[in-house]
Amino acid sequence: MSQNKNIFGQVLVALVTPMNSEGEVDWPATEKHIDYVISSGADGVVVTGTTGETSTLTDAEKLKLVEVGKSVSAGRAKIITGGGSNETAHAMQLYKASEKAGADGVMIVTPYYNKPTQAGVLTHFRLIADATDLPVILYDIPGRTGIPIAYETILRSATHPNIVAIKDAKGDLAQASRVMNETDLLYFSGDDSNVLAHLAIGATGLIGVTANISPAAYREMLDATNRNDFHHAQKVHNSLEPLVRAAMNHVPGTVASKYILHGLGLINSPRVRLPLVGPEESEAARIEQDIDKVGSVTGLSFENFRPDRNAAAGGALPKVAGTTR
After folding, report:
1. What is the pLDDT of residue 321?
2. How many angstroms separate the CA atoms of 34 and 271, rounded?
3. Which residues participate in catalysis according to the annotation?
4. What per-residue confidence (pLDDT) applies to 83?
5. In the 8-state DSSP scheme, what is residue 18?
6. Residue 292 and residue 302: Cα distance in Å, rounded?
7. Is 269 left (phi over 0), alpha (psi -120 to 50) or beta?
8. Pairing state between β 136-140 and 78-81
9. In this structure, which long-range contacts are made by residues 226-229, counting pairs with CB atoms below 8 Å and at least 24 apart in sequence?
């Protein structure tokens, strides 16, 4: 089927939230990082998602991230708010406030921890989509939420006029093809190791973690795919593979991405909020071993990679605890 008009672009970054050594949001570093990914080719930025540590951000921080993103992007990229809540009423409240703060779209994750039935999942999605005029991306990540979005639920959700896209972190390529064939949803790869595979079967683009580090390489991969140069797209994929492994395989993607970004001098601190902690010595060593194998990725040099294991150690509590209300 023909897809919805692509209002988000193709290279979307699941943004980390830079923090200082005390675990508070580093707003100047956040502005700098948003500008970095957009200037390097990102079409959109997803703030307050999993990678942005949404579960330990306050509502006020989430809304300010939207405002800061809109200010820095200045129309150059779409700003999408992720995360939401596993409480439907709270999610509706957050997304309404995000719309007022200037968000260009919302990304609704499957309700986590509650483990609702598919009827509950569908109701959650529909009520939130009813509560905002913004275009909605569904986020299917059963490894974190405990449940998948069933194929039938995706089809039923796709009939809602505000639900226009899905981010797939499930890794089921057969179902991905089926959804693309049977709906007009924009389809975004949410699994960094499967980006090229998703693109090869018709995905719209990606919402990536590793794109925090090398957005220019993903821009090059998408541009190559758009001109049907899959040979070059594969070359970029192969160059990125050790970086994806470094960012995604040893510790949570947020932790590894901040460790790498700090080692490259792109953010001021690798600090994460508890219960996340920085990589242990053995984990840091494996990240660094993978980094050493990264190919000539466009727009980024790892020759000056200087990780600071001491700065990354442990996690932090902000002065204002990261409650959602």
Report:
1. 52
2. 18
3. 139, 167
4. 80
5. -
6. 8
7. beta
8. unpaired
9. 226/10
Query: Is-contact 256 246, C-beta < 8 A?
Result: yes
Positions of E strands within 97-216 = 105-109, 136-140, 163-168, 186-189, 205-208
- The fold adopted by the segment(s) 11-229 is TIM Barrel (3.20.20)
The token duo for 312 is 């990354």
Q: Is the CA virtual torsion 48, 219, 33, 282 positive or negative? A: positive
Q: Do you know the residue count of the chain?
A: 325
Domain boundaries, the chain: 11-229
Q: How many whole angstroms separate alpha carbon 70 and alpha carbon 101?
A: 9
Q: Name every residue whose Cβ is closer than 8 Å to that of residue 235 and which is 6 or more positions away in sequence.
A: none
Query: What are the angstrom distances between the C-alpha of 194 and each of 12, 77, 293?
Result: 15, 24, 19
Asked if 226 and 218 count as a contact pair (C-beta separation under 8 A), the reply is: no
| Per-residue pLDDT tens digits for 17-50 | 999 999 999 999 999 999 999 999 999 999 999 9
